Prior knowledge:
The chain is mainly alpha-helical and about 375 residues long. Helices cover about 60% and strands about 5% of the residues.
Amino acid sequence: MRRALSRAIPPLALALPVAASAASAPADLPPYTQAYQPQGTDERGLWMLADEDERNLRDSKFVINDPALQAYVGGVLCRAVGEDRCRGVRIYLVRVASFNANMAPNGTMQLWSGLLLRVRSEAELAAVLGHEFAHFELRHSLAGFRQRRSATDIAAWASFLGQYGPAIQQTAIGSIFQFNREQEKQADLLSLKYAIQSPYSAQAASHIWQRLMGEADATALGRKQRSQRYDRVAFFATHPTNLDRATYLSTLSADVAVKPEAAESYSTALAKWLPEFLSDQLKLNDFGGTEYLLASLAGEHWTAPLLFARAELYRQRGNPRDLVAAADFYRSALGADPDMADAWRGLGLCLMRDRQQVEGTVALKNYIRLRPQAADISMLHAMIGE
């Protein structure tokens, strides 16, 4: 996942050593230094920029101001990486519908709401938090800055080397992305070490990448596009493929004792925000991916919020057959929660658009009864002829 300020940048394969991938994930964690302070001009400069970014982030309207949810996520981090490691981290929950998280070199961690929507348990959340903290503990931002500087300097000088210049420049550019992928793998492996010593299941990490592949395929299918390749790495890829990550994380955790994933406690903690996050997802105009995500979230049990979101998804697409399906989903949501006002509203609008005025009027009157002060009351009164 994306790290703030800078990415780990690889050195030239011809001139600098590329970090080797670990073949296994030993259980022993590296020694950790409390109250680390930046060393040298490069690192102090990075921290200064990170501090300024954090000041701007702190006042952003996109930050979710929910102390209970933030404390819950912080507790998962501490259980994932240990109390000694988590104390210096400041977590910001940011309302952005995409799957992403990042960690700045000064200890600022961002988690996007799209990620919170997609993970299924504390164990999966712990895997993500551990991955981001691993970037911080391994000082990847500093290494990335220095490697980027070295690679771009060599690429600049290569422009004076005539016919050999373009090949060297291409190598320099490719090494940037190659080393970045290496650092992502290093963070995955250190995160797995955290998981082995935590109360959470180490197998959970691979589940995330498997589902993300399914969602990406569903998005491509819904947009009539070709699915991306997971069996090879693109030249400009900054991360290993999702298939690669799912495979090596699954393989390395196969012999580790299975521990709890804490799915129910995660669902309870997220319940307050689930309708909001689902609403944000619907605005992405991604019918196939959203349909896959909703089905994945529901499993064998469709709750009222998930049924409502599915109804909204079909109603917004608005094909005649979609209106029929949407009305059924609204009715199912109301069967689970008869006081869900927005479901009455959606059902009424759906039926009105499908020329079922009598039943649509009844539904809209139920919405008006439940939300007498809603901003759209006047419009709805006009629709039903009152």
